[in-house]
DNA sequence: CTGAAAGCGCTTACAG
DNA sequence: CTGAAAGCGCTTACAG
């Protein structure tokens, strides 16, 4: 008997603490509807009332209960970040593995686009072959109001399935015809680096592209070619090759092929930092010095190029800004689901580090 | 008039779709309380009833509304991942910047510990100096049921403040006296790499430690010293120095000091991959070849060492497992808030790549 | 072992 | 411009 009683009065921390909309209403001498309208920034509220309520909120340290809000408004106030990966197994960190750096750096920018917003972010790494028919948990469990899909590792089938869910979605890092998208200006980026190499007196250029299967490889190649076409001084020789894999090992093998075919570039451009590091590994083994013997410019800018030996000049694609702008796009899509599809291309800049030398 | 009508019947997707607990109850011919008990795995339900309900759930494709659950149970079913960072400004990726790789890799392991669980994950990068008195948004907005704090960039003040919030918390990556924690076995790891260098015939060892201000630097040094003490063959010379900064630039400057003091190790140990890359940069500039002239072993294992030129042998600290185990600890803490404080140390292994040579 | 009822903390028409 | 009331979809004592 006594014991039962004891259990009954054992309140939890939250029970005691929880300030609700009713407490605020009471303190401000208004109804809870009014408080709700203030919280949701209704223009129908008299300024005087608004401030009265705001003060009460402040004084009481009131924080709206997110579950209650969500329950009535049928929203979760959460956005999903889907990182597309090659596989979900244990990472080896070896240079034949995917780096996932792009998605991490982009996702650092996302919260910046969410400031002054109630949205939280739920992350999921997702791999299509392994999950085959499954949808991401984020979606299956109805946890999100909107979705970022980061990276290119998905096809039309997957896109359609997501589309059918009706969740506002923005694709980050590549073009596509299903959703809004935002991506770096690939062609302009490669144009930039190629031009710089030409202007610094390089005569034998080699472009090591990403795999042909990647839709982006065309844009990249175009940037390379257009820079050469529009340059005053023409290179004596130029080569272009697609790596077989989009990682260090892919770059390693590609330059090896070039090298063993007897080609000797004085400057190399890489499709991204991972491939670049693979190239550098091969050159190191051949005792070729960068930049003394061969200059290099990579593409993306990441911890990989910033920390590499030597520090790698690269094209910065402004990943944080991409993440931030992706938010704006998604927020608009959520607010106006039927609006016209949006595509956004972010310009790039060249970052100079230690892998390019001026040749006369 | 007509228009008003049109608006009224414009249901949203969810309105039409939403299968609720009532639909399930009806289909299974039970009350919604029973359905709820089944969902929550109550042992009080007859097996037969349970299967009946489970079938109805299956057939209807019912997914519990997470907000409704949270509202009644006073839970959010979300865990927070707090990544402690040095600053929140735009990342440069240069080698004088913090890499945040540890927290990323750990957070990849976390979902593995959450399989068969309803918990989602909310991430936040948080910086103490910049946010001074503020608490992480995750906490201020009552969004989480539990918290992972990743990384060491916080002091007792912050820990106490978090403690006062009463949120179950586990610290990942360093010891501390406020919360449960899980970390790699630093001493054992350094012992491992030092021993390997000794066994491969190196006579002049240099340990480049993390900054003295880091609590972990002592454990690391102990591992180094103990390996030497317990080795059959003693090194001819040994040096140990703390980098001033925990990044590439710190490693660069440290080895520069060693070098300019005329010391010439034949093997170097680095406190982590970032510091290691800084060391390698300096050696590259000095035209010292790794491993031919100097062998190196780093600590952590990350994309940085896996992609480095040459590929860096390092101590793998099993970050994914750390993340997974951290979940178990946190889940236990949530279930039993008053239980004894838990600390867990994960053993490390040596991963051999291309930076160590056998000397005779 | 299961059902009826209250209540979690909000938002949203609706009325005035 | 503001209040009273209904309802969102669950869980949790409580009763039987």
From TrEMBL, chains A, B:
Residues 19-73 form the HTH lacI-type domain. GO terms for molecular function: DNA-binding transcription factor activity; transcription cis-regulatory region binding. It comes from the Bacteria. Keywords: DNA-binding, Repressor, Transcription, Transcription regulation. This is LacI family transcriptional regulator.
């Amino acid at each position: 008997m006594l014991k039962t009683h004891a259990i009954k009065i054992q309140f939890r921390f939250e029970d005691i603490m929880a300030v609700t909309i009713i407490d605020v209403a009471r303190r401000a001498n208004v109804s809870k509807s009014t408080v709700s309208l203030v919280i949701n920034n209704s223009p129908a509220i008299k300024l005087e009332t608004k401030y009265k309520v705001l003060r009460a909120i402040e004084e009481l340290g009131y924080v709206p209960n997110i579950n209650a809000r969500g329950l009535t408004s049928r929203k979760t106030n959460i956005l999903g970040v889907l990182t597309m990966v090659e596989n979900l197994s244990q990472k080896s960190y070896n240079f034949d593995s995917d780096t996932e750096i792009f998605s991490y750096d982009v996702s650092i920018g996302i919260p910046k686009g969410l400031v002054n917003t109630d949205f939280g972010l739920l992350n999921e790494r997702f791999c299509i072959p392994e999950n085959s028919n499954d949808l991401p948990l984020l979606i299956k469990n109805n946890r999100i109001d909107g979705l970022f899909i980061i990276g290119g590792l998905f096809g039309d089938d997957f896109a359609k399935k997501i589309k059918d869910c009706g969740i506002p979605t923005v694709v980050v890092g590549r073009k596509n015809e299903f959703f809004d998208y935002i991506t770096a200006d690939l062609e302009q980026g490669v144009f930039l680096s190629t031009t710089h190499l030409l202007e610094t007196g390089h005569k034998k250029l080699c472009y090591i592209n990403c795999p042909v299967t990647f839709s982006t490889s065309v844009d990249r190649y175009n940037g390379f070619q257009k820079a050469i076409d529009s340059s005053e001084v023409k290179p004596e020789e130029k080569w272009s090759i697609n790596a077989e894999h989009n990682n260090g090992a892919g770059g390693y093998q590609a330059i090896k092929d070039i090298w063993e075919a007897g080609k000797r570039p004085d400057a190399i451009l890489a499709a991204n930092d991972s491939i670049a590091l693979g190239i550098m590994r091969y050159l190191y083994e051949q005792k070729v010095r960068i930049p003394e013997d061969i200059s290099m410019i990579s593409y993306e800018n990441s911890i990989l190029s910033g920390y590499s030996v030597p520090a790698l000049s690269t094209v910065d694609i402004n990943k944080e800004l991409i993440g931030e702008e992706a938010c704006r796009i998604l927020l608009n899509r959520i607010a106006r689901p039927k609006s016209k599809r949006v595509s956004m291309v972010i310009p790039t800049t060249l970052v100079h580090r230690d892998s390019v030398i001026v040749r006369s």
